[in-house]
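Q: My labmate handed me this sequence with no annotations at all. I'd like to see what the chain might look like in three dimensions before we decide whether it's worth expressing. Could you predict it?
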Amino acid sequence: VKINPGIVYLSSSAYGPDGPNARLPGTDGIAQAMGGVCFSYGEEGTRVTTGQIPIGDETAASHNFQAVMVGLYHKLKTGEGQLIETSLLGSQIRLMGFSMSRVLMTGEKMLRSRMRFWAGDTPNVTVTFTDKDGKPFIIQVVGEERWRKGLENTGLAEELDKVGCARLGDIAASDEKRKIFVDTLDRMFATNTREYWLKLLREADVISAPINDVGEAGADPDVIANQYIIEVDHPRVGKIKEVGFPWKFHKTPAKAGIAPELGEHNNEVLKGLGYSDADIKQLKEEKII
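A: Here is what I predict for the chain of 289 residues:
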């Protein structure tokens, strides 16, 4: 900034620019551990582990992108550049969102849980089930009226009425009824396929979805239709599938490319810096490039 006051540049570290560990190196797993993400995996009484998904790296990269865009917008409006500092740890804290805020506001310790069933005060319920083939899916319901409509459309209302567990408010307020509710629907949902149940639930405006494994997620019709997974041509290995873009620009659509081979664009880059063909030839002869 001293040399070029209009420059916007970002420095991203493991722990953040201040604090006792500011100078220490760190990785994705370290950020998940420090930020509370690792603690959230598994159940009480089991060993704390990390996951296979690079949550720390991916969220930090996204936050870095957002921060630079804001910095560039500020420069566009004021002409001023600035240093922006981010960290892997900071991104994990932000990712924890409401879960973190709730602990800080109430002082209650967050329990480790796989969270098959969650009930709120509104009333609302989030719960997972499996179909007759063992394929999992999730249901999230807010409001008695919509839930009742879903039960009637799926033919499950009569069974839950028999055991006194058709109302969300009753389920949320009683551990005993919660168990009866889950056990009853476990038995009912195991009589047909996930696709069958999701069709009926969605027809009744009950929010529901398959719980995909990674392969299923990559082949999901909505993922394919929105080009969240794309196919690109690689000069050495041919057509490959790759993660696409989470956004869609209607004026300036994003275009996927292939990472260059080592030194592939040396000529173009060096010529752009003012080097002549003779200069580049000499650099190659001297094995500098």
